[in-house]
Amino acid sequence: xxxxxxxxxxxxxxxxxxxxxxxxxxxxxxxxxxxxxxxxxxxxxxxxxxxxxxxxxxxxxxxxxxxxxxxxxxxxxxxxxxxxxxxxxxxxxxxxxxxxxxxxx
Length: 105
Fold this sequence. Notes:
This protein is α+β, with helices and mostly antiparallel strands. The chain has helices at about 1-10, 15-50, and strands at about 55-60, 65-70, 75-80, 85-90, 95-100. It starts with a helix and ends in a 5-residue tail after the last strand.
């Protein structure tokens, strides 16, 4: 009964005006949240694809090391970690940032 009252009294144009703020909020969320996240993901993938021997990287666990070997099949890297030059094997995806790119070309 109450629903019929609102359907009869509401003009057809007001439904579009009522949806406009919701659509505007979705647009703002897209440009402020989703677009920067997509850009950051693309930059991270580009950085991971460009890793070379000799690059100094930081892993997601906070380990800083220099890449000494790259195994493309298993997507793993061998890092040399100071002070004792210990070598550890990590996945390529665990690299969070590139500190210096003094890789051999």
